[in-house]
What does this fold into?
Amino acid sequence: MLAGATIADVATIVLLSLFFSAESGSTATRAILLGLFAVFAAAVGLAILGAERSRRLTDMLVRLQDTTAQIRVRGAFLLLAAFVVLADRFGIESILGAFIAGAVLKLVDRDRMMTHPFFHRKLEAAGYGVFVPFFFVTAGLQLDIDALGNGSTLARVPLFVAALLAVRALPAVTYRGSVETPAVVAAGLLQATTLGFLVVAGRIGMDLGLLSEANGAALVAAGLVSVLIFPSAALSVLRGRMATARMAPAADIQECRSRSIPAAARSRASSSKQNGTEFGISWMGPSSESEPAAPLSA
It folds into this structure.
């Protein structure tokens, strides 16, 4: 599911770069430039793989990675900046360049020898602690609050939210063959959660004159609604599923006990009757056909 959602996000960014790029030129020209950029990214990845085979370079990276130099983190930021700048030069959206830089780094840096186990955690800390908040702050500053004060603009927000669910959540039904229904619902809600792409797409549309300020503000507001509501709803669905899964074994145990108790009682009753017959004791009491007992002699 995660791979499918990632591929969908990458595909939308690629299509955005091809058909709605701010750079002039035909779609065929942009496709050629995108192909050249992909070849360049592959060449950079192969170069990094080749450099990792150098024993001297590896020893230097290991020696400096946890010092104040933080050589691996700085190298990752250098790679990110280079890909973003080159994406802009190739007429591709910067967000696609940043994503490809991260993909290249993930593919070439497997760390099979566990020489830098905290490297990816450092990048996540820098990304979620600095760049992601900075991006959302910038997006909030660019949001047209005055346009959202209009009733017609606010009425478009639910429409965009419904469009998000239809376009990004409904494809999750393809997971029904492999996971349960609550997991499918949660996956659809998480796939429909997006804000960064809507901010970028709205800004490009407004720059090209294809999207009005009101529609751009409503689009970003719909993204905010998805971020605030959809993840919480998905977690609620998953928690309900987990609670049901925990209650199911208890119910099965109780049902097994209720079935085993009468069976055990019947087994004890049958055993007692058999034992009474063996010792000459009638189960239903004295029989009417039995001869009276002989009187005791004085």
User: Anything to note?
Assistant: The radius of gyration is 35 Å.
